Amino acid sequence: MTDTTQKVALVTGASRGIGRAIAMKLAADGFAVVVNYAGNTRLAEDTVAAIEAEGGRAIALQADIGDADAVTRLFEQSLATFGRLDVVVNSAGVMLMAKIAGDQLEVFDRTIATNLRGSWLVLSKAAETLSEGGRIVALSSSVLAKSFPGYGAYIASKAGVEGLVKVLANELRGRAITVNAVAPGPVATELFFEGKSEEQIQSIAAMAPLERLGQPEEIADVVSFLAGPQGGWVNAQILRANGGFA
User: Fold this and answer.
1) Tell me: the pLDDT tens digits for 69-85?
2) What predicted TM-score, i.e. pTM, was given to this entire model?
3) Which of 94, 98, 113, 152 could be disulfide-bonded to 104 (CB atoms 3.0-4.6 Å)?
4) In the sheet that 178-182 helps form, which strands lie side by side, from edge to edge?
5) Summary mean pLDDT of the chain
6) d(C-alpha 215, C-alpha 166), whole Å
7) What values do phi and psi take at 124, rounded to 5?
8) Taking the C-alpha atoms of 211, 217, 219 and 220 in order, what is their torsion angle to the nearest 10 degrees?
9) Cα–Cα distances in angstroms (integers) from residue 100 to residues 96, 108, 113, 215, in the given order
10) Domains and CATH numbers, the chain
C-alpha cells in the first residue's frame, strides 16, 4: 500500500454495529480505512473484506483503546501502512448496566476505562497526529437526556466524552482541525438488542417522534458529513442523531 495521496480514516470499534457502518461509509466516500477492533478478529476481517469487495482499501488493526501503549501502536501502524491519517472516529465503547451502588464499582471502572479513558487516549493521539484540515469525531449517546435507571456509568462516561470534545476543539485552535461528537439515539445493533425483550425494544423505539429505531447507516451518514468537505464549518458540536428521541 504505497499510495499516500488517498485520504485515510481510522475508525475504532469498527468490527460491528455502528463502527462497521461508519467504516463502510467512509470507504465508500473514498477513504482508505483502518478498521480497529478489540478482540474479534474474524468480524474485523469481515469488515475489511466487505470494503475491499467494493473496491476500497482497508486494514484491520487490533488495539484496546483503554490501553495507552496499544493506542500508540495503533496510530503508528496506521501511519506505517498508509503514510497519512486524515480522520479519526472513536466509535469503540461498552454499555454495561448497573445501578449506582457500592457493589457495582467494577461496572463503573470498566465503563470509564473504555468509554472515557479510551476517548482521552484516542482523541489526544489524534490531536498529536492529524495535520491541518483533519477531522476528529467521537461517539456519544442521546440517552444522556433520559437518565434511565441502570445507565449511570454509561451516561457518566458519555457526558465526559462530550466535555472532552468541546475542550479539545478549543485546544486545537489555529490548526484547522474540527472536533465533534455524534450522539445516536436507539439504533438497531447487536449491542442494543442484547438483553432486551421484544416489549422493551418496541417501547424504546416508540419514544422518538419518528417511532422507530435508527439504523447504523444513518449514524454513519452523519459521521460522513462531519468527515467530508461539507462539514468543515461544524466544530465543537454534539450532533444528536436520534429521530427526536431527546
Assistant:
1) 999 999 999 999 999 99
2) 0.96
3) 98
4) 58-62, 32-37, 8-12, 87-90, 135-139, 178-182, 238-239
5) 96
6) 26
7) -70, -40
8) -170
9) 12, 9, 17, 30
10) 8-184+216-239 (3.40.50.720)
